[in-house]
């Protein structure tokens, strides 16, 4: 069984795969050692490691090299936050991405440079082209940005997310990710009406994995939150302690 098939089969509505987001080979190995069945990355977190802001500012060669180091460091499936594809044509995207050894990728439907939503037909065509080029070799997680981009009124955002989710699944996505949704009733509605696997973001932990499972979610991820939490401790506790000549390891 290929790693892509493994990841795809683990996305079970109501029994979600929990996929912690790593940012380098060392953190990916920690995720695997802790017993998780797959590793995700966060574009925000990996861009920070490379010295860039999120939003496709990091050079694509560096992003792909980082993905390869992570994928080659673990034996479980790796799925990469690949933003909107770094302006690569679908065939080149698939060829270069598959070469990293990662077997899944997030593709978002807003322009990282402007924040504007991509036309739904254009995005569906893009996802379909990636699927055609990849066959079953990649697990496509189609991100829906209607909520974080505030695309219209609250009701319009829901309608937009449902329409896009359905169309992305029809285009060949394996899972859809309506990022920025924490309301459990809304998540349940999206799961029921989209008609396919849904990825929920854990956020700051207002909801538990069990809460998401009860609403039919198929995948739970964490974005850059683990890295942010650890880096905040480094910046706010450890470094100030040593600057004040206190033992940082007892802070």
UniProtKB/TrEMBL annotation:
GO terms for molecular function: lyase activity. Keywords: Lyase, Pyruvate. The keyword Lyase applies. Gene3D superfamilies: Phosphoenolpyruvate-binding domains. It holds the Pfam family PEP_mutase. PANTHER family: CARBOXYPHOSPHONOENOLPYRUVATE PHOSPHONOMUTASE-LIKE PROTEIN (AFU_ORTHOLOGUE AFUA_5G07230), PHOSPHOENOLPYRUVATE CARBOXYLASE. This is Isocitrate lyase/phosphoenolpyruvate mutase family protein. It comes from Kribbella soli.
């Amino acid at each position: 069984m290929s790693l892509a098939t493994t990841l795809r089969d683990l996305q079970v509505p109501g029994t979600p795969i929990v996929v912690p987001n790593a940012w380098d080979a060392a953190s990916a190995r920690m995720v695997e050692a802790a017993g998780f069945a797959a590793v995700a990355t966060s574009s925000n977190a990996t861009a920070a490691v490379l010295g860039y802001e999120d939003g496709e500012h990091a050079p694509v060669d560096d992003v792909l090299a980082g993905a390869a180091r992570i994928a080659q460091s673990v034996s479980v499936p790796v799925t990469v936050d690949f933003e909107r594809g770094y302006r690569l044509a679908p065939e080149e995207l698939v060829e270069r991405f598959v070469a990293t050894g990662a077997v899944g990728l997030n593709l978002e439907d807003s322009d990282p440079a402007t924040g504007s939503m991509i036309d739904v037909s254009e995005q569906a065509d893009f996802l379909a082209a990636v699927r055609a080029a990849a066959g079953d070799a990649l697990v496509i997680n189609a991100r829906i940005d209607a909520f974080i981009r505030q695309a219209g009124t609250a009701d319009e955002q829901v309608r937009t997310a449902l329409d896009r989710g359905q169309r992305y699944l029809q285009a060949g996505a394996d899972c859809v990710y309506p990022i920025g949704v924490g309301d459990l009733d809304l998540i349940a509605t999206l799961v029921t009406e989209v008609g396919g696997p849904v990825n929920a973001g854990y956020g700051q932990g207002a909801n538990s994995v069990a809460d998401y499972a009860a609403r039919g979610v198929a995948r739970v991820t964490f974005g850059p939150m683990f890295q942010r939490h650890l880096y905040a401790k480094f910046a706010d506790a450890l470094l100030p302690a040593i600057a004040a000549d206190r033992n940082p390891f007892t802070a």
